[in-house]
Every structure is written in C-alpha cells, then in structure tokens.
C-alpha cells in the first residue's frame, strides 16, 4: 500500500499538497487534522459520525467519490454554505482511487 | 449563592465521574452545564451510538453510559445548574472562586474543575439578515416553555428529531404549525416521521419542503417569514408570530476562553505530570477540554484525569489532613444520603 497525494485548500485560501496513507483506515477529515490544516476544535467536532458539518469541504477535482450515505445527505441538508460539490470529509475514505484529489475546506460556521 | 467543595463546569461523562471520586473523599460537587440535561455530547450528539472502549464494557450506548454514571454518583447528591452557561469567574482573597452563569446564578467553591469538553453547546443559527433583531422578539432557538406558543402561529425550520418532535408537540398547542425543511426526507425516529405525516394529512401541520427560510420581516417584532421553494425558487411570505430554527447545536469554548487560562489549540493547557491543574491555582481542567503532550480525547482518559484532580483538590481543601487512598472494595461507598454500599462480610461460623 502506498500514499496518495491530495491537494487541500485551507480556510485561509492557502493550498497544501499532502501525502495521505491508504492503509491507515483514515478519512479526509482525519488527514486534514493530522496535518493541522484547520485549528483543533474547528474540524471533526463530532469525531467523524456525520453529525456535525465542521469537516464540510468542496470537491474540486472530478474524482468518482462514493455515494453519500443517508446520514451525510441529511447533515448536508442542514449545514450552512452548502454547494453542489459539498461533502463531509469524515465520510470520504482514503483509497488509492483518490490520488490527486483536490478539495477546499468550507468556511467555519460562525 | 450555591456553595460546594468542587464546582464542576460541564456535566459530561468526565464531570459526572469526578463527582464519584470526590464523593469517596467526602467532597461535595455541583455541576453547571449549558445543556438542559446531564451527559454532554453523549446525551446531546450520540446517545444511541455504541462506545467500545470503556474498560469493562465490551459495548455500551453513550446514553446508557450517562444513565449508569448518574446512578453511580446518586449517593453523593451532586447539585446541578442546567441550561445555564458559566460566564465569569472571580477569585476571592481567600483563594476561592465565584462562578456566575449567564442567568446570574452564583456558585462559590474553593476548587473549580473545568470538564467542558469542546465547550458549551450553542444553537446553530441560520445565516439570515436581521436575525439578531428578532431574537427573543419572535425568534427562539430553544423551546423552554411550550405554553408561550399557545394559540400562536409558529414556523419551525429543520429536519432532525427536535424539529419533528416539537412540530408534533406544538400541533396541539399552537394555532398553526408550519414545518420547513430543505429536503423531503427527514432524519429522525421513524415514529416521529410517521406522526408528522399523519398530522400533515389531517391538516394540523403545514409542511413546506423542499424549502428554506430566506428572510425575516416585521416592524418591531417578527411578522412574516419568507420561505423559498428550493425546487422552483418561488418565494412566499408566511405570516407568523414565532420562528423557531432547530438546526442542532454546536460547541463553542465560549466565555471560558476569557478567564485568563492558557489556551492552546482551542483547549486549556494543564500540568499532566501531576494533577491537571491549569496556570491558575485552584482551577483544574479535565477531559476533552484540556491539552498536554500526548493528550487523547477519550472518555477513559477523562475518568483518570478526574480521579487525580480530586486527590489534588482534597489536599488543597484540607491542607492539614493526611489521606491514604482506599479501595472501594475495602472501604465501600458511603453516600451523603446516608446510604452505604460495601462488600458482604465473610461469615465466621463453625461447621459441626
């Protein structure tokens, strides 16, 4: 198993290219936290249960992502700043197919 | 003024277990929590989710863990100030503290233990212009007293359990209930969804989906809410007395961050080599709210931190007393309510 490259634009608009492991059972929210691309306490608040929208991001590349679960769909319907390409980072599992993925973190809810 | 030995801010699992450990040392506790019920995130965010890493429990639902903790600490008669947020802290000359809530309730204690998790849960507010103008003037985020809505025209927005449950409840109280949600699907208990369907069919709930509230109108008080049908983009004004957006809660560290405590990464720095005390002597921080090298935000770590904090608090409150830790198996549990639990004594009896 190898690492993949992901391009993440943080909430200040700064772009980071990071290596994400595919063999650590990680999701995108956890990758963002492990590189501290958003302050602790502002992302992954519910721990990854799709029960808050603090890890919302906009997917900018045209990767084929897994379908949204009912939970994710429901959470996004109550989140703010939602766009057509919004996803919850915690529901995106890091796999080799996602090499080259580009995402932008949604603004922090006030 | 509420007086206690250890004032605990946050009634999540860590704060609740601190009551038990303090009780073993004959110290009394009082807890403040912004939520209307004890349990913190376990009750508020994921009561029905299983937890697998509580020692001795192969699997326990978060809500059941809270129920068990409440049962465990019952003999120590903790006091609760619920539905209020700890706002200010004042250190008196004798080193004790007065903590005042946003409702003005005052608490006096020699030791303060912050077990605040990610902070106090605040309602998520929709991004609407003029929203603040109508707060407490037709807009509320929490329903405290349902009778307020008797014979009123109420519009609720949201798609979760609380939006469904309150729509059902208020259908019998209010003159008119309108429920607005961005999708046709609701995320709630099946019973609640079916009940809303039934009330809609009976004409008792006016359901507008997929739609969202886009504007608020009214001279001094809220009078109308503009609802936009998100499939057709058509906007309609709905006459209302009250608008209740129920979009869940999100935690904020809030006023605690202005108490002069050292904060790092949205958490309070503590001395993890000893007793989880903060930079202000007498104020401790335990559980998810603290940080130190190697910190893990786990409930089981919060339990450990609470235990060591209580030992240190005991020394602070009784500097002249010597104390030796006693196993509950040996010493039993003597409650402030007069109850006593102890291991059954072996019988000494001759066998003929």
From TrEMBL, chain A:
Where the record annotates domain 2Fe-2S ferredoxin-type, the positions are 4-109
What InterPro entries does this protein map onto? 2Fe-2S_ferredoxin-like_sf (IPR036010), 2Fe-2S_ferredoxin-type (IPR001041), Adrenodoxin-like (IPR001055), Beta-grasp_dom_sf (IPR012675)
Key words of the record: 2Fe-2S, Iron, Iron-sulfur, Metal-binding
**Which PROSITE patterns does this one have?**
2FE2S_FER_2 (PS51085)
Cofactor(s) of this protein: [2Fe-2S] cluster
Q: What is this protein called?
A: 2Fe-2S iron-sulfur cluster binding domain-containing protein
Family per record: Belongs to the adrenodoxin/putidaredoxin family.
Q: Which organism is it from?
A: Flagellimonas aurea
From TrEMBL, chain B:
Reactions it catalyzes: 2 reduced [2Fe-2S]-[ferredoxin] + NADP(+) + H(+) = 2 oxidized [2Fe-2S]-[ferredoxin] + NADPH
- Residue sites binding FAD per the record: 14, 33, 41, 46, 86, 121, 288, 329
User: Which Gene3D superfamilies does the annotation name?
Assistant: FAD/NAD(P)-binding domain
Cofactor(s) of this protein: FAD
| Keywords assigned by UniProt, alphabetized | FAD, Flavoprotein, NADP, Oxidoreductase
Q: Where is the FAD/NAD(P)-binding domain?
A: 5-293
Q: Which domain of life is it from?
A: Bacteria
**What's noted on cofactor binding?**
Binds 1 FAD per subunit.
Q: Which HAMAP family match?
A: FENR2
Q: How does it assemble?
A: Homodimer.
What is the protein's name according to its record?
Ferredoxin--NADP reductase
Instruction: Give the organism the record lists.
Output: Flagellimonas aurea
């Amino acid at each position: 198993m190898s690492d993949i490259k992901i391009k993440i634009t943080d909430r200040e608009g700064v772009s980071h290219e990071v290596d994400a492991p595919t063999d650590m059972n990680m999701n995108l929210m956890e990758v963002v936290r492990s590189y501290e691309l958003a302050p602790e306490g502002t992302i992954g608040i519910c721990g990854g249960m799709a029960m808050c929208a603090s890890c919302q991001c906009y997917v900018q590349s045209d990767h084929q992502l897994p379908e949204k679960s009912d939970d994710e769909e429901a959470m996004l319907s109550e989140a703010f700043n939602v766009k057509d390409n919004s996803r919850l980072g915690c529901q995106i599992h890091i796999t080799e197919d996602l090499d080259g993925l580009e995402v932008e973190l949604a603004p922090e809810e006030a | 003024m509420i007086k206690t030995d250890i004032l605990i801010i946050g009634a999540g699992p860590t704060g609740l277990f601190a009551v038990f450990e303090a009780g073993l040392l004959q110290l009394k506790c009082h807890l403040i929590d912004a939520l209307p019920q004890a349990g913190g995130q376990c009750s508020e965010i994921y009561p029905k989710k299983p937890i697998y890493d509580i020692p001795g429990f192969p699997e326990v639902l978060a809500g059941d863990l809270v129920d068990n903790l409440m049962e465990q600490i019952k003999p120590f008669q903790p006091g609760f100030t619920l539905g209020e947020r700890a706002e200010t802290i004042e250190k008196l000359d004798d080193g004790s503290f007065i903590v005042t809530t946003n409702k003005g309730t005052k608490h006096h204690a020699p030791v303060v233990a912050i077990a605040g998790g990610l902070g106090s849960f605040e309602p998520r507010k929709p991004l609407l212009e003029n929203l603040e103008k109508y707060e407490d003037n037709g807009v509320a985020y929490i329903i405290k007293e349902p009778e307020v809505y008797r014979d009123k025209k109420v519009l609720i927005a949201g798609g979760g359990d609380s939006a469904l449950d309150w729509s059902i409840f208020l259908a019998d109280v209010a003159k008119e209930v309108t429920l607005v949600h961005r999708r046709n699907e609701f995320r709630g208990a099946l019973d609640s969804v079916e009940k809303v369907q039934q009330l809609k069919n009976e004409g008792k709930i006016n359901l507008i989906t997929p739609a969202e509230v886009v504007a608020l109108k009214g001279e001094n008080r809220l009078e109308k809410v503009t609802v936009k049908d998100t499939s057709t983009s058509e906007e309609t004004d709905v006459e209302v007395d009250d608008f209740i957006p129920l979009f869940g809660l999100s935690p904020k560290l809030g006023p605690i961050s202005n108490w002069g405590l050292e904060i790092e990464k949205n958490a309070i720095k503590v001395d993890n080599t000893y007793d989880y005390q903060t930079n202000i002597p007498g104020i401790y921080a335990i559980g998810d709210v603290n940080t130190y090298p190697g910190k893990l935000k786990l409930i089981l770590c919060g339990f450990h931190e609470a235990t060591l904090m209580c030992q240190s608090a005991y020394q602070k409150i009784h500097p002249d007393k010597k104390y030796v830790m006693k196993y509950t198996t040996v010493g039993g549990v003597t409650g402030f309510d007069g109850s006593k639990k102890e291991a059954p004594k072996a019988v000494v009896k001759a066998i003929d």
